[in-house]
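Spend some time on the protein that follows and explain the fold to me:
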Amino acid sequence: MKDIEFSQEQKERIISKIKTYFADELQQDIGGFEAEFLLDFFAREIGPYIYNRGLFDAQQVFNEKMEDLAYLFQELEKPEA
């Protein structure tokens, strides 16, 4: 799997959210540099777990839809004489 990358705009929004979280929940101010390092850490170390979970969830939905489709095909079958 290749590294998770964000556009500059996405990175800025995420860094802002990290800084806000630290200020609101932990009563700590961190700079943009520290927040960016934290984002890079999470993307590198935790990102694959989240990515894999997303793939698993997508596969579950796909499988459910395929079962629905198979059922619809059965309904279209003509009775044999």
About this structure: The longest helix spans residues 47-76. The two ends are 53 Å apart (CA to CA). The chain has one domain: 8-75. The mean pLDDT is 93.
